[in-house]
């Protein structure tokens, strides 16, 4: 530690980089907004627009992208809270759900999972949770909308365990619900925190708290509710999981906070506790072992590539997660995969709702760098000539498949170029059927909107009209056994064997019954839902 740059050590220590995961409508936008409100990045709630309200045709969507650079500006939000520098990574949902949503989780050091108290764990949360689990990052749960009628809190904890397989530790415990919601009991501080919605969540809420033993609470809650609280707290202490910070940091135990983002209730205690428990950027694995974030050598990896929506510029923005050292504007770095020097001239950073040119940045920060078409997802950039490579970004399972053709055979070259470009940006995955005469492209996407984007961009940027013929496949598995032998492999009628861009064998399925059948019939073959990019 002695020869480390104290400035870097200090900046790493105060950084927290996390993603908020949830199912649409659980309250991710509202919670994000409230965190910005507490961080002083916005003055009043209601300034961050919910993207879900933009129900529109794809061309409108493109217009919005162009006007606001929406997915760029909302990709990362940086703000300060007390002495912490916080980076929130956006995980787009609704119709914007795509592979980028998963890839963003590769850049986060922890995740906040927002669950609607009336719904419990929902499908999109389950998918995103799987990626967090695979990475072993800490996961914090915010059970939202406690001001409304919701499920029983014990039932919600059971749901976390049954649907996600994660044990939980409630950091606070709700008192009453819906119209009779009184507040929470803070288990660490052993105090009651009273709910108060008088300011409707517009401004920062003051916490009115007190000791559980104070007789006034029995009067305020009523004897039954007061007794119910005492019984539930006793049950939690005796039958619940014990608090275990190591397990939290390994993503095996999730601290649970009950609150209401809309009314601000529980948001600040959550933020404080989260900042205390969640780790600053830690060492990341490379081909040369773990790289200490405090190291003097700047390094980072690209996890997302964003196309420039202006068709006259093919330029793109590559999102770089800084993993070690200090970034300074204009620095020259080594692009490891291409073995080339690159100058990072106009890097951008995303402060609350604005895009600014960044002068310096540190581990945990995300910067947007100009990409004239040289970067690929998973590339490493580093300052020295060591040539370290960070662990690759996996390829996540597409859920929609289609055959895509060009209407005009004379445009085939442009068609292939466009497909290659979109595949490099990671918005589509390309599969081919081996050994069939004509070349036929099967495109897989995580979110169905990507097909519309594909059609729009091929027409606008490459002048190619395409036919997209939807296929009934919904699941994919990469065959990862080295000794895979097609001849001895038993298929089902509704399953197709294809190859990915690296000619790895891949199966696409119409239903999960077929997956189980194939696993049953081919016990020696290993199937994976996520593929590690070569
Ligand atoms: P999302 O980003 O996860 O999709 O959810 P978002 O924050 O947009 O919230 C979805 C809806 O739930 C919104 O209502 C929002 O006001 C509401 N909501 C969020 N947190 C709470 C909470 O703590 N309590 C209650 N009662 N409601 C909450 P909407 O009517 O769909 O939209 P809007 O017109 O309010 O924007």
TrEMBL record:
Listed Gene3D superfamilies: P-loop containing nucleotide triphosphate hydrolases, Peptide chain release factor 3, domain III, Translation factors
Coarse class of the protein's main subcellular location: cytoplasm
Localization per record: Cytoplasm
Key words of the record: Cytoplasm, GTP-binding, Nucleotide-binding, Protein biosynthesis
Segments forming domain Tr-type G: 13-282
List of residues binding GTP: 22-29, 90-94, 144-147
Superkingdom in the source lineage: Bacteria
Similarity section: Belongs to the TRAFAC class translation factor GTPase superfamily. Classic translation factor GTPase family. PrfC subfamily.
Cited function: Increases the formation of ribosomal termination complexes and stimulates activities of RF-1 and RF-2. It binds guanine nucleotides and has strong preference for UGA stop codons. It may interact directly with the ribosome. The stimulation of RF-1 and RF-2 is significantly reduced by GTP and GDP, but not by GMP.
Listed name of the protein: Peptide chain release factor 3
Lineage, highest ranks first: Bacteria, Bacillati, Bacillota, Clostridia, Eubacteriales
Encoding gene per record: prfC
């Amino acid at each position: 530690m002695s020869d480390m740059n104290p400035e870097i050590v200090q900046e790493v220590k105060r950084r927290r980089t996390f993603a908020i995961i949830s199912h649409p409508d659980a309250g991710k936008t509202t919670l994000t907004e409230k965190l910005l409100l507490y961080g002083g990045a916005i003055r009043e709630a209601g300034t961050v627009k919910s993207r879900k309200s933009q129900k529109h045709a794809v061309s409108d969507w493109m217009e919005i992208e162009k006007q606001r650079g929406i997915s760029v500006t909302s990709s990362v939000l940086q703000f300060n809270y007390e002495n912490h520098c916080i980076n929130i990574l956006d995980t787009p949902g609704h119709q914007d759900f795509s592979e980028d949503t998963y890839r963003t989780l590769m850049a986060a050091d922890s995740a906040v999972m927002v669950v609607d108290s009336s719904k419990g764990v929902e499908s999109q949360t389950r998918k995103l949770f799987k990626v967090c689990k695979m990475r072993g990052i800490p996961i914090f749960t915010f059970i939202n909308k406690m001001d409304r009628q919701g499920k029983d809190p014990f039932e919600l904890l059971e749901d976390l365990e049954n649907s996600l397989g994660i044990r939980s530790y409630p950091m606070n415990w709700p008192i009453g619900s819906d119209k009779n919601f009184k507040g929470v009991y803070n288990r660490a501080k052993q105090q009651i925190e009273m709910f108060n919605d008088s300011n409707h969540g517009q401004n920062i809420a003051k916490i009115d708290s007190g000791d559980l033993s104070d007789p006034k609470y029995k009067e305020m809650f009523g004897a039954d509710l007061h007794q119910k609280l005492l019984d539930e707290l006793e049950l939690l202490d005796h039958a619940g999981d014990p608090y275990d910070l190591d397990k939290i940091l390994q993503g095996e135990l999730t601290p649970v906070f009950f609150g209401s983002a809309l009314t601000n209730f529980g948001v600040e205690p959550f933020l404080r506790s989260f900042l205390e428990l969640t780790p600053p950027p830690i060492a990341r694995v490379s081909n040369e072992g773990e790289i200490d974030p405090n190291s003097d050598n700047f390094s980072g990896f690209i996890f997302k590539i964003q196309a420039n929506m202006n068709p006259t510029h093919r330029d793109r923005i590559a999102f770089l997660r800084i993993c070690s050292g200090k970034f300074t504007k204009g620095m020259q770095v080594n692009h490891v995969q291409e073995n080339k020097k690159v100058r990072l001239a106009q890097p951008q950073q995303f402060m609350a709702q604005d895009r600014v040119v960044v002068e310096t940045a540190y581990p945990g920060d995300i910067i947007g760098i100009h990409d004239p078409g040289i970067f690929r997802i998973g590339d490493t950039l580093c300052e020295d000539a060591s040539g370290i490579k960070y662990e690759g970004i996996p390829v996540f399972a597409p859920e929609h498949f289609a055959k895509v053709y060009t209407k005009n055979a004379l445009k085939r070259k442009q068609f292939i170029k466009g497909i290659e470009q979109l595949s490099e940006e990671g918005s589509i995955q390309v599969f081919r059927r081996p050994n069939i005469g004509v070349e036929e492209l099967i495109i897989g996407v995580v979110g169905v909107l990507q097909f519309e984007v594909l059609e729009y961009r091929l027409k606008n940027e490459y002048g190619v009209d395409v036919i997209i013929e939807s296929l009934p496949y919904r699941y994919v598995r990469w065959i990862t056994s080295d000794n895979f032998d097609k001849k001895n492999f038993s298929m089902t009628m509704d399953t197709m064997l294809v190859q990915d861009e690296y000619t790895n064998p891949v199966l696409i399925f119409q239903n999960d019954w077929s997956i189980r059948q194939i696993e049953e019939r081919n016990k020696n073959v290993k199937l994976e839902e996520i593929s590690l990019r070569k």
